[in-house]
Amino acid sequence: GASYFSGGIINIARDTDGTYIAVSSRGNFYLTWSPGDDFWIPHNRGTPRRIQNMGFVNGKAKEGIWMSLNGGLLQIAKGADLTVDTPDFQSVPIKTGGYGIIDLGWKGSDEIWAVGGGGTMYASKDGGKSFKFDNSADDIPGNLYQVKFANNNGFVLGSDGVLLRYSGQV
To answer: How many CB atoms lie within 10 A of CB 113?
Structure first.
């Protein structure tokens, strides 16, 4: 019923062209809005697991959308059509041990970083076909919430004001 599409928003992301994607507080659906749309378009999650977070591939809606799900699962829909109810999401092989993925950051088209619960970080050097655990944040007691890159510098924001800096070398 209509109550399925009720509640608040836990995350919202904007791409460079002004397209938005927002995740419902219950994680049971997400919304999209593109310039020229009259209203936000609700989308079913297409999986029994709840959505943790969503964003745009490489920060651009035209390149696709990514979705992290409870239990540490990650899916990407490359070149996704935001007008369809459920884009063609493909599972990404990432072994998280159940830790949730909270954010993804692109450092170019082939290098992707994922951060999440328990101070976990993963890196992909092949455009997201595979991810490997990165132990750089093993001693961080808390979650990592955001990862962003600009030029060759990267930053990760975590619990209790933790700020990590990536300067091109691991």
So the answer is: 22
Over the stretch 80-92, which tens digit does the pLDDT of each residue have? Answer: 788 888 899 999 9
Position 159: which residue type? S
pLDDT in tens, 90-115: 999 999 988 899 999 999 889 999 99
Q: Kindly state the percentage of the chain with pLDDT values over 90.
A: 67
Rounded Cα distance between 88 and 5, Å, is 21
- For residue 3, the model assigns a pLDDT of 53
Contact 74, 114 (CB under 8 A): yes
Closest CA relative to residue 128, chosen from 89, 156, 169:
89
